[in-house]
Each structure stands twice: as C-alpha cells, then as structure tokens.
Amino acid sequence: MTRYDVVTLGESMMRLTPPGDLRIEQTRSFDIWVGGTESNTAVGLARLGMDVAWFSRLPASPLGRYISNRIAQYGVDASHVVWAEDERLGIYFHEKAQPPRASEIIYDRRDSAMSRMQPSDLPANLFKTDEALLFHTTGITLAISETAGETAHEAMRLAKAAGWRISFDTNYRSKLWSGAEAAAGCDHAMKQADLIFCPLGDYQVMYGDATPGAAIADLQARYPNTLIVMTLGKEGSQAITSDGEILRQPAILAGEVGRIGGGDAFAAGFIYAWLNEGDVISALKWGAALSSLKYTIPGDLPLIDYEAVAALVAGDAGGGLLR
C-alpha cells in the first residue's frame, strides 16, 4: 500500500470573476475562486475517493493560505507546499461573455511565488517507492518560468526513479508560450510519461493541422511507449493502443455553467479508472462523465460526488430533482 495514489505539482491561483456577464471595467465586485490545472485534477481525484497530494510554492500570507486551505478543504493533502516570505500570489481574471463576444482570461501571475520554485524546493522525502503510484503535472508548469520547468522535470525524474508512473497533460496556454515553444518544451516530459493527455487543439497548435486520427497516430509515433489520450471537444475523446487501435468515447452533453477546469476533470476521471481498473475504454468513460458534470458547476474545481459520476458512467443521464 502506498501513502498516496497520486501526487500533483503546479501553480494554483486566485481567480476573480465579475458577477453575471459584467465586464471588468463595469464591475464593482468580483466572485473569488481557486483554480490551477494540477490542483483541479487533484480535487477531482480526491472527490472520487483517491488519496492525493498537491504541492506548489505559495506566499506565506493570507492569500497563500486561502489557496491551500480551499484545496485541502476538499480532501487533498497540501502539507508539502513550500511557503515563501514576501512573495506574491498569481492571480487571473475571467471575463465571462455570451456570443458573439468572447470570454477572456487575463493573467497577473508574473514573478509569482510558484514561478520562482526551484528543484531544491522539492520535498525530497516524498519521492520514495512506497509513497505514491503516479505523479501528474502539465505544460503550464513548464511554461511559467525556467526554474518551475526545471523543478517539474526533476520531480518527474525522482518519481520515475521511485517506480511511480508519470502522467503529463500538454495544457497549452497561448499567453505563456508559442506552439513551437510548447512542442519543444514539452518533448522531454512527454518522453518520460506513461500517460499523455493532449487535446486536439493543443496538437494542432504545437504540430500542425491534422484529423483526430492522424494526430493521435502521430503522437504515438513520437512517443511509442506511452498511452496517448486526446480530447476532441464536442466530438468526445479518443485513445490509441500500442498496436495502433483507436478507441473512441462520445462526449456526454451538459449544460455549460463553468467550462474552466473541464479538461482537468477529464484527466481526473481518466486517471481514476486507469489506476483502479486498468481499462482504457472505462477510463475514457469516467473522463467524459466527470468532465461533463464539471461543466454544470461554476468555478474551477470539479466538486462532484462519486455516485453521480458512477451513475453517468453506467448510463444514467442524470438531471431532474433529487428529493
């Protein structure tokens, strides 16, 4: 038995969103949320009953404690966080909009505490054979700074040396780096990974236009010893086996209340079923179900009950009124 099922590393920020569909320049108040791709996935896994740890570097301030407290509140072990004196918390603003006006993300994360994380900040005692089954991080952590990227790479090296599996999500962000930079910057991490999540949109920005089938086959050729999983938006998701068979899962339609964090929820559902059942088809279903349910919840975190996900996987369309 291991202490944790999954350990994640990444930056979590405070998200400020005007109420309703107000623009930032109109609003007199903001709704406050906590969001970060790896901590979103960690919370999703914890809600499914897994033992999960998330670590990062946060300012030793009320703002930093607000982040760690919210993540720990939902069952994630945040005790490995590195606390930094006199540093700042990354913040982002989300301006929601209805078509034809586009929603927008505005980052205020430069020189955040997490961007200054270094390999020496890693909790060395954590990376032992009996501590965890899988380590998960994303391209965002590689992109926010050179030292954060070095830290993520060292964490992957330590996890692999301890016999853990490695999960990596490309999670491309155009405001952090270009497609070419992402392709080059993620390559080493993807070579270390046992499981890669790469949305079709990320692939097309990083490598060029391709159909879903051609894109996932190309990734398998680039990373032949890795399970490749690709989300396709409203077309669902797919994975490719070692012998080239493409397995597909349709999307589960949902009312869109909060789409931010939907991909992170998919990763949580997939990892949960992959570790527990070892079946890729089942894992695609769990990913689709958790992602669909996340869309119905405001904020970044997938605050879903296990029973709701299991029912959706089993074919219960959900909805209605529970009494």
How would you describe the overall organization of this protein?
By secondary structure, the chain is α/β, with parallel strands linked by helices. α5 (179-192) crosses α6 and α8 runs antiparallel to α9 (280-294). It is globular, with a radius of gyration of 19 Å. It contains ten helices and 14 strands. β5 (57-59), α2 (62-73) and β6 form a beta-alpha-beta unit. The protein has helices at residues 37-47, 62-73, 139-143, 146-161, 179-192, 200-207, 212-222, 262-277, 280-294, 306-313; strands at 6-9, 13-17, 31-35, 52-55, 57-59, 82-84, 91-95, 104-108, 134-138, 165-169, 195-197, 227-231, 237-240, 246-249. An eight-stranded mixed sheet has the order 4-1-9-10-11-12-13-14, sandwiched between helices. Strands 3-2-7-8 form a four-stranded mixed sheet. A two-stranded parallel sheet has the order 5-6. The chain has a domain at 6-10 and 37-55 and 123-313: UDP-N-acetylmuramoyl-L-alanine:D-glutamate ligase (3-Layer(aba) Sandwich), CATH 3.40.1190.20.
